[in-house]
Protein backbone atom coordinates (compact mmCIF):
# COMPACT_ATOMS: atom_id res chain seq x y z
CA UNK A 1 0.00 0.00 0.00
CA UNK A 2 1.53 3.37 -0.99
CA UNK A 3 2.10 5.96 1.71
CA UNK A 4 -0.30 8.92 1.72
CA UNK A 5 1.92 12.00 1.94
CA UNK A 6 0.43 15.25 3.24
CA UNK A 7 3.01 17.54 1.64
CA UNK A 8 3.38 21.28 2.19
CA UNK A 9 6.19 22.78 0.09
CA UNK A 10 5.47 26.47 0.93
CA UNK A 11 2.80 26.49 3.67
CA UNK A 12 0.72 29.57 4.40
CA UNK A 13 0.78 28.65 8.08
CA UNK A 14 2.68 26.16 10.24
CA UNK A 15 2.20 26.32 14.02
CA UNK A 16 2.09 24.36 17.23
CA UNK A 17 -1.06 24.94 19.25
CA UNK A 18 -3.10 23.24 21.94
CA UNK A 19 -6.63 22.18 22.70
CA UNK A 20 -7.71 21.80 26.32
CA UNK A 21 -6.89 23.25 29.72
CA UNK A 22 -3.34 23.25 31.16
CA UNK A 23 -2.64 19.80 32.53
CA UNK A 24 -4.98 18.21 29.99
CA UNK A 25 -3.79 19.88 26.79
CA UNK A 26 -3.32 18.09 23.50
CA UNK A 27 -0.59 19.57 21.34
CA UNK A 28 -1.04 19.82 17.58
CA UNK A 29 1.25 20.61 14.70
CA UNK A 30 -1.08 22.33 12.25
CA UNK A 31 -0.16 23.17 8.66
CA UNK A 32 -2.23 25.00 6.05
CA UNK A 33 -1.68 25.85 2.39
CA UNK A 34 -4.76 27.34 0.75
CA UNK A 35 -7.71 25.07 1.57
CA UNK A 36 -5.50 22.11 2.58
CA UNK A 37 -5.31 21.85 6.38
CA UNK A 38 -3.68 19.05 8.37
CA UNK A 39 -3.44 18.72 12.16
CA UNK A 40 -1.37 16.01 13.83
CA UNK A 41 -1.30 15.35 17.57
CA UNK A 42 2.05 15.50 19.33
CA UNK A 43 3.41 15.13 22.82
CA UNK A 44 4.47 18.29 24.65
CA UNK A 45 8.04 16.98 24.75
CA UNK A 46 8.03 16.33 20.99
CA UNK A 47 6.90 19.90 20.39
CA UNK A 48 9.60 21.35 22.65
CA UNK A 49 12.33 19.17 21.15
CA UNK A 50 11.27 20.03 17.60
CA UNK A 51 11.57 23.76 18.35
CA UNK A 52 14.95 23.23 20.03
CA UNK A 53 16.38 21.23 17.11
CA UNK A 54 15.08 23.67 14.48
CA UNK A 55 16.77 26.53 16.35
CA UNK A 56 20.00 24.48 16.47
CA UNK A 57 19.91 23.99 12.69
CA UNK A 58 19.25 27.69 12.07
CA UNK A 59 21.94 28.77 14.54
CA UNK A 60 24.49 26.50 12.82
CA UNK A 61 23.58 27.95 9.42
CA UNK A 62 24.21 31.49 10.71
CA UNK A 63 27.81 30.53 11.49
CA UNK A 64 28.51 29.68 7.83
CA UNK A 65 30.70 32.28 6.13
CA UNK A 66 28.53 35.16 5.00
CA UNK A 67 25.29 33.54 6.24
CA UNK A 68 24.49 32.48 2.63
CA UNK A 69 20.89 31.54 3.45
CA UNK A 70 20.07 34.87 5.19
CA UNK A 71 19.01 33.11 8.38
CA UNK A 72 17.53 35.62 10.85
CA UNK A 73 18.86 35.60 14.41
CA UNK A 74 15.43 36.48 15.77
CA UNK A 75 11.81 36.18 14.74
CA UNK A 76 10.76 38.51 11.93
CA UNK A 77 7.85 40.61 13.30
CA UNK A 78 5.76 40.13 10.17
CA UNK A 79 5.85 36.34 10.63
CA UNK A 80 4.66 36.25 14.27
CA UNK A 81 1.48 34.13 14.47
CA UNK A 82 -0.41 34.23 17.77
CA UNK A 83 -3.77 33.19 16.32
CA UNK A 84 -5.49 30.09 17.72
CA UNK A 85 -5.53 26.81 15.84
CA UNK A 86 -8.01 26.52 13.03
CA UNK A 87 -10.66 23.77 13.14
CA UNK A 88 -8.79 20.73 14.43
CA UNK A 89 -9.46 17.34 12.88
CA UNK A 90 -6.66 15.06 14.04
CA UNK A 91 -5.07 13.28 11.08
CA UNK A 92 -2.90 11.07 13.28
CA UNK A 93 -0.90 10.95 16.52
CA UNK A 94 2.79 11.48 15.88
CA UNK A 95 5.28 8.72 16.51
CA UNK A 96 8.61 9.07 14.69
CA UNK A 97 9.81 12.37 13.31
CA UNK A 98 12.61 13.50 11.05
CA UNK A 99 14.17 16.93 10.71
CA UNK A 100 16.50 18.21 8.03
CA UNK A 101 17.73 21.07 5.90
CA UNK A 102 17.29 21.48 2.13
CA UNK A 103 20.02 23.83 0.86
CA UNK A 104 18.51 23.91 -2.65
CA UNK A 105 15.39 25.70 -1.38
CA UNK A 106 16.80 27.08 1.93
CA UNK A 107 14.06 25.36 3.90
CA UNK A 108 13.80 23.39 7.11
CA UNK A 109 12.16 20.02 6.42
CA UNK A 110 9.95 18.21 8.96
CA UNK A 111 8.74 14.65 8.48
CA UNK A 112 6.18 13.18 10.88
CA UNK A 113 4.89 9.62 10.91
CA UNK A 114 1.93 8.13 12.81
CA UNK A 115 2.41 6.35 16.08
CA UNK A 116 2.30 2.63 15.38
CA UNK A 117 2.97 -0.57 17.29
CA UNK A 118 6.37 -0.56 15.59
CA UNK A 119 7.24 2.63 17.51
CA UNK A 120 7.03 0.50 20.64
CA UNK A 121 9.55 -1.41 22.67
CA UNK A 122 12.63 -2.53 20.69
CA UNK A 123 13.02 -5.35 23.24
CA UNK A 124 9.70 -6.79 22.06
CA UNK A 125 10.28 -9.82 19.80
CA UNK A 126 7.61 -8.60 17.36
CA UNK A 127 9.51 -5.32 16.90
CA UNK A 128 11.18 -5.30 13.48
CA UNK A 129 12.03 -1.98 11.85
CA UNK A 130 12.14 -3.49 8.35
CA UNK A 131 8.44 -4.30 8.55
CA UNK A 132 7.41 -0.71 9.39
CA UNK A 133 5.09 0.62 6.71
CA UNK A 134 3.75 4.08 7.32
CA UNK A 135 0.25 4.41 5.84
CA UNK A 136 0.64 8.20 5.83
CA UNK A 137 3.06 10.94 6.73
CA UNK A 138 3.32 14.71 6.97
CA UNK A 139 6.07 16.46 5.02
CA UNK A 140 6.52 20.18 5.71
CA UNK A 141 9.09 22.51 4.19
CA UNK A 142 9.38 25.98 5.67
CA UNK A 143 11.66 28.92 4.92
CA UNK A 144 14.07 30.15 7.58
CA UNK A 145 11.98 33.14 8.72
CA UNK A 146 8.90 30.97 9.11
CA UNK A 147 11.00 28.41 11.00
CA UNK A 148 12.17 31.09 13.47
CA UNK A 149 8.58 32.22 14.03
CA UNK A 150 7.52 28.57 14.46
CA UNK A 151 10.12 27.95 17.18
CA UNK A 152 9.26 31.17 19.03
CA UNK A 153 5.56 30.32 19.13
CA UNK A 154 6.24 26.69 20.05
CA UNK A 155 8.38 27.70 23.04
CA UNK A 156 5.64 30.08 24.21
CA UNK A 157 2.91 27.43 23.83
CA UNK A 158 4.95 24.79 25.66
CA UNK A 159 5.78 27.27 28.44
CA UNK A 160 2.15 28.36 28.90
CA UNK A 161 1.14 25.24 30.79
CA UNK A 162 0.87 24.67 34.52
CA UNK A 163 3.37 26.51 36.74
CA UNK A 164 6.29 24.45 38.01
CA UNK A 165 6.82 23.73 41.68
CA UNK A 166 9.90 25.59 42.99
CA UNK A 167 10.70 22.64 45.27
CA UNK A 168 10.48 19.61 42.97
CA UNK A 169 10.18 21.10 39.46
CA UNK A 170 7.04 19.15 38.58
CA UNK A 171 3.85 20.89 37.37
CA UNK A 172 1.40 22.14 39.98
CA UNK A 173 -2.18 21.02 39.35
CA UNK A 174 -5.08 23.40 40.07
CA UNK A 175 -6.29 20.92 42.73
CA UNK A 176 -3.01 21.19 44.63
CA UNK A 177 0.42 19.61 44.70
CA UNK A 178 2.23 17.18 46.96
CA UNK A 179 4.94 19.76 47.83
CA UNK A 180 2.60 22.65 48.54
CA UNK A 181 -0.35 22.43 50.91
CA UNK A 182 -3.72 23.68 49.65
CA UNK A 183 -4.56 27.26 50.57
CA UNK A 184 -6.98 27.68 53.46
Describe it:
This protein is α/β, with parallel strands linked by helices and 184 residues long. Helices cover 19% and strands 30% of the residues. The protein contains two helices and seven strands. A seven-stranded mixed beta sheet has the order 1-7-6-5-4-3-2. It has helices spanning 44-62, 144-159; strands spanning 4-8, 13-19, 26-33, 36-42, 90-102, 107-114, 136-143. Strand 2 and strand 3 (26-33) form a beta hairpin. The model is unreliable at 124-132 (pLDDT under 50). The protein is globular. Helix 1 (44-62) packs antiparallel against helix 2 (144-159).
Report strand order across the widest sheet: 1-7-6-5-4-3-2
Query: Could you estimate the helical fraction of the residues in percent?
Result: 10-25%
Distance from N terminus to C terminus (CA atoms, Å) equals: 61 Å
Total number of beta strands: 7
Derived from helix and strand composition plus strand pairing, the structural class reads alpha/beta
Strand content: 25-35%
Please provide the ordered H/E string of secondary-structure elements: EEEEHEEEH
Give the biggest sheet.
7 strands, mixed
Number of helices: 2
**Over the alpha carbons, how many angstroms does the gyration radius reach?**
19 Å
Estimate the global geometry from the Cα principal axes.
Answer: globular
Average residue-wise pLDDT: 87
Low-pLDDT windows of residues: 124-132
Amino acid sequence: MPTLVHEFAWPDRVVIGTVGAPGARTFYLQVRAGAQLVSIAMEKQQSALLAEKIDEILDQLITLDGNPFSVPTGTPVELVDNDPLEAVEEQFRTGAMGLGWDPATAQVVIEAYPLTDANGDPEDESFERDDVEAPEMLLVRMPVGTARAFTKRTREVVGAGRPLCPLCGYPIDPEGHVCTPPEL
